Amino acid sequence: MNQPTREEFEAFKQEIRQEVRQLKEQRTEEMKAINVNVASADVTTRLDELEQNQKALFDVMVKTVEDNVKDLRDDLKQDISNVQTVQSGHSKFFEEHGKRLAHIETAMATKEDITALKGDMSAMEARIIETVKQLLQQKPGELTQQ
To answer: What DSSP letter does each residue of the chain carry, written as one string?
Structure first.
């Protein structure tokens, strides 16, 4: 076997290093993932049916909500009407009560009226007492004569 010379060995070593460097630098282009949606006819048909069912269900739900809102609106109108009727009755009652109060206030005695009545009652009481005293002082035969 022939042994390589030192120069040949160095040249070979240099060549190997060069190839290793080229392999390190060499890059392959990355492949991007490709998403291919392939659906069979039966899958597409099934998806269309589901979409139609979903639309039908949505329409039913919307109709139900609309009906409920209409019922609630009608109930609310009726309740408001009932409240207005009751309120109208209360208004009439308070009007009549106000008229009665106004009449009572004009017919009520004032403080001066009560003071005058007390004075009149005191005078009557004094006269009654005086009359009773006179009657008690009279003799039994004199009472029948008057």
So the answer is: -PPPPHHHHHHHHHHHHHHHHHHHH--PPPPPP-------HHHHHHHHHHHHHHHHHHHHHHHHHHHHHHHHHHHHHHHHHHHHHHHHHHHHHHHHHHHHHHHHHHHS--HHHHHHHHHHHHHHHHHHHHHHHHHHHS-HHHHHH-
What tokens appear for 51 in the block? 């979409």
User: Cα(83)–Cα(80) distance, rounded to whole angstroms?
Assistant: 5
Quote the DSSP letter at residue 109. -
Question: Which amino acid is it at 103?
Answer: H
Q: pLDDT digits over 47-80, tens only?
A: 889 999 999 999 999 999 999 989 889 888 898 8
